[in-house]
Amino acid sequence: MPTSAIISTNTFSKSWLMTGWRLGWLVVPPSLESDLGKLIEYNTSCTPIFIQRAGIAAVTGGEPVIEHTRERFRRARDFLVAELRQLPKVEVAVPDGTMYVFLRVKGMTDSLAFCKRLVREHGLGLAPGSAFGPEGEGFLRWCFAAETDKLADGVRRLRAALG
Question: What is the DSSP letter of 107?
Fold first, then answer.
């Protein structure tokens, strides 16, 4: 019987709102367990106990948190997309499974320069599409994991930048 070569990884970061806590898990074929144990011991040992306990709480009782977060993000996404679609020069699609919207600004050819200007002149921090590879040029990435009043303020700032 062939040995499985699939390794699955996941983290608690996004789903359970534990970004930066560096806790996750691996599912590996039994043949890799001993070597993987050594790798983990020498590279990541000793996740603090409060983070380990938070991980247990997330796995045993965190599903309502995930559902609440999904609904909150869905409302924020729908709000932001609707607002962006009202701006001239802006094209945006509704993302299905993320907390980011990619938008295109017609006529923008240097997303990094545009983002630097947004921060400097309008106090709005968006990620340049070019940071995600050459195919991203001409786009901006906006994280909508925020309250709608903050998103509305950001749209106001973008509208001012587009003049």
Answer: T
